[in-house]
Please model this.
Amino acid sequence: MTGGEQVPFSRVATSGIEILQCVVIRGFAAQAVVIQVQTLRFSIFFKVQEMEQTLPSTCQIVFDDPNRLHEFTLVVVPDEGYWVGGRFHFGIYVTEDYNMAPPQVKCQTKLWHPNISEDGDVCLSLLRQSSIDGLGWAPTRKLKDVVWGVNSLFTDLLNFDDPLNREAAELFLVDKESFRHKVKEYVTQYAKR
Model:
């Protein structure tokens, strides 16, 4: 590359993909070399596409900022069970440690649920780095697994044996009708569509 000069790399972010550009000038025909770098954002781009293609019919994904694919809201609208008629928002944040660590999930809608605290903490095995039942997070898990897991908290994944909201679990065990009534009160007050 005698007499050639390299212009330093510049970074350009487009649609969640980071691209490095390098232009070689003087002594060569102007040429551009575009190198795609697989970063967390690049990986997330494909995980988000896959997640959106396999969404349960009761779920919707909302991106407040389409350039921040690692932060989004999952909206769950149960069509059966105790929470039918509600619209529940979960903030999902994919950390830099993803795939080695699970995304962070927080319920943004106040509700009465044995596995979700009134502060929004979510008790779901696959969101734990390690869990007693062996179903915790693993690098092979995907964002779609998180979506399906959160959705299942409103149908078949209720866990009354290891609840986050003990009061809700105890009420369910001693008086299912009072539990149903309290759930409906919360849905009406905080989660109406």
The chain has two domains: 5-36, 44-190. The mean pLDDT is 78.
